[in-house]
Structure formats: C-alpha cells, structure tokens
C-alpha cells in the first residue's frame, strides 16, 4: 500500500516508498504513483503549493504531484486493473494508477496544472475533465478536440483550475466501453481561501455500476440498464468503508454520478443542505433542509450538515434494488406460493433444492448457500444485532464523541445508552425503558465484534 505520509515525508517529495512504481522510465515525467489497497486512505496534506483542506476519498486516495516551475504536475496511467468489489469478489476493470476509480486529483483555484496521461489500455483513449473551464483543445473529446491517445503513448493536458468546486474525469473515447469498465475519477478544486465554507470532514466518492455475471470477472460493456452491482467508488457493501465522523463535526459529502440512472441518496439521523453542484457553490439563500437528494446522470452534489447525533447511521441509495448486490433479473416473485407440498418431490430430483421467496426475501440475508466463485451474496452485511440485509450502494456514518481531527479509524459498532434501543413488547409487560434525556453524553464505541447489550430499567406504571 502506498502511504502519502511516507511518499511526502516531512513535506518533501524527494523519497518514494518501495510501493511506488514508475510506469514510465523517462526522467522528465513525474512518477506514476500506484495504489494497491482498496481501503480508504488518510487525507493528503499538501506538501507544497497553496494550502487547502484535503478531502477523504471513500475507499480511495489522492494522487501526489510534483512542483515544476510553479506548475503542479500529475501522472495518470490508463490501464487494466483488478478491483476488489468486496471481500470474496474481484473484477477485471480498466482504471488509472492501479485502481478503479482512479485517484482523486486535488488542486487550488488558480493553480496551473499539467497532467501527463499514459495509455496502457489495449485501445486508444482520452480524458475529459468534466465540468472544468479550460481551453477547447484540452477538453478531451477524441476526434473533436484532440487526436485519441494511442496505445503506449503519453499525452499532456495543461490548464488553469479557474473555479473552485467538485468535478470528475473520464474518457471521451469509446466512452461506453471504457466507462462501463470503470474508467473515471474525482477532481476537487479547493478555494484560494482555505477558510471559505470550511468543514471538519470532507468526504467524496463516485457512484458507479457494473453488470458482472455470477462466477465471472469482467463487466458486460453493452448493458444499458440491467446492472447487478451498484457501488460507491467501485465497492459494494459490506466492502464499503464507513464514514467516521466526530460528534458535532461540520461535514461535507461530495457525490458524483457516472452510472446510467439517477440515484436518490438518503441520509439517516440528520438533515443536510445541498451546498454545491458541478456548476459551483449554491447561493445560501437557495438552500433548504433535506434528507434525500436525487443525483442525475453526470451530476455532482455536495451536501453539508452538522453531525450532532451520535450513532451508526445508514447512508445509501433509496432505490431498494441498488442495495441488494447481484440480484438475478429473471427471478420470479413467489410470495404466497406454498412450495412445501412439492419440496419432497423436487428433492428426489434436485437434492439441494431449497424453498425461498414464498414469504419474502429477508431470509436471503442469513442464508448460506453455494455460490459460483467470485460472486457476492445479495442482501449481505452483518451488524451488532444480526444481518443488515443490504449490499451495493450502502454504508454507515459512524458519529462519535471525542475523535481527534485526523482520526478516521473504524471505531467499531456504536454502544447504545440504556433505554435507547427498540425492544419487544410482550403482553402484560409492565417494564419499559427509562427515558434518557442526553444520550450523547453516554455515547461510546463498542470494540469491533463486541455484542451490544441493551439494559432496561423497570419503571412501575403505578408510580411506585
């Protein structure tokens, strides 16, 4: 795994770690840094150039640069990659610098940037800098603005990052194939003034989708709508890392959509406002509180909120089939169909046949059944109280008291204060949980894997 702290130790770019690989031998090119971990990496503090408050890319990382004559130089390598979608499943994708999506690029408003793009794909490519104001010849539409980048060649893009905001990059050459294979990345242009709309935690990720047959490794690139893997940054829950947040932190989450459909992104436990789009920051007078924002194809939304409610809060796409993983498109609905009378007969022909779906699909979350190699079970993921029954576009915001500003380690499951967990009501039960007026004062994290117990204090209904 590449550590940016090692790469830029003591704010210097002279030494690189053994995990850094130069893909191009020419000394005139900046290093093509490669990441070999699918885990969320710590923010890259700027070692030189103008100061800014860095983002954290969910299950991703930020691309280091070098300064040359006042220009920030980056090196992207377009290449086939292997991406772990979640533990137990890998996919043969195309991406940049060892991963799909590629690394996030962070610059500051007014920076002159120079991006070297080396093509190691089996066909030509290009890069479009989605949402940027730049010279027409740098816009990256092959055939229209530039010749396509041939195999084994390196092209240079150079422009000034003219306006702050959140953007994306992706090919505009054989676009349907290359984006279906995972070629995309995030771009953040920070404002000149680091105090402008400053937040304590700033997360970003892309929405993407793949159609990968169970047991196979490579996406079907001609799929239009029937995708079976819906992902945050090419990761499906439970492989998506949590967003770790300090209690009362001001938080920004930037989400870009490069799938073929819209996604209503929903947050539990808090309200937020939409503060940014691909077009820039939204005027404060135009904002209103929401708990869901719909992100259309090719759009970006930046949302902000104060994390004043401790706990483990769900954050997901509200299209329910986008949180299921590899669901078969042709599976019939069997709710209400009694199958037990035919089970014995079927088992004589198919010994491993199981009844499923006649009472709903919830049992699928806990069912251990044989799957083809390299296939994710649908409706998976386990929490402190059992199966979560979610996959795909789903993660957890873990809001905790007392986190250090730079602490992004998973704190484990939330330990609920007494009287704050839903409980079973039994007929004649006279014991109800004692109300807790300030649960945040007792909020703390359980250790990973620790069972969370609910303590119920009896209250006598007669007032004794």
Note the topology:
Blueprint: H1 4-7, E1 56-57, E2 66-68, E3 71-86, E4 89-96, E5 105-108, E6 112-119, E7 128-130, E8 154-160, E9 165-170, H2 175-180, E10 185-190, E11 201-210, E12 229-232, E13 243-246, E14 250-257, E15 263-267, E16 273-277, E17 280-281, E18 292-295, E19 300-306, E20 311-317, H3 340-349, E21 382-383, E22 386-387, E23 394-400, E24 414-415, E25 444-445
Parallel strand pairs: 1-11, 3-6, 5-10, 11-14, 13-23
Antiparallel strand pairs: 2-3, 3-4, 6-8, 7-9, 9-10, 11-12, 14-19, 15-18, 15-20, 16-17, 16-19, 20-23, 21-22, 24-25
Would you mind describing this structure in some detail?
The structure is a single chain. The protein contains three helices and 25 strands. It is mainly beta.
Summarize the helix and strand pattern as letters.
HEEEEEEEEEHEEEEEEEEEEEHEEEEE
Beta strand %? 25-35%
Largest sheet: 7 strands, mixed
Question: Quick one: how many beta strands?
Answer: 25
The low-pLDDT segments are 3-26, 438-464
Q: Which class do the helix and strand fractions yield?
A: mainly beta
Keywords: Copper, Metal-binding, Oxidoreductase
Subcellular location: Periplasm
Domain Plastocyanin-like: 85-193, 219-331
Protein name: Copper oxidase
